[in-house]
Amino acid sequence: MFLSLNNEQQHALDAAKQAFGPMLEGLVKYSIPIT
Prior knowledge:
single chain; mainly alpha; 1 helix; elongated
């Protein structure tokens, strides 16, 4: 299911995961008790 990415795209994807991963996890943690 993964597309073949060049190195530049792969680094951008990894950077995005590192940047948004913790934030998304935080949103999930805080949204679960509310719902």
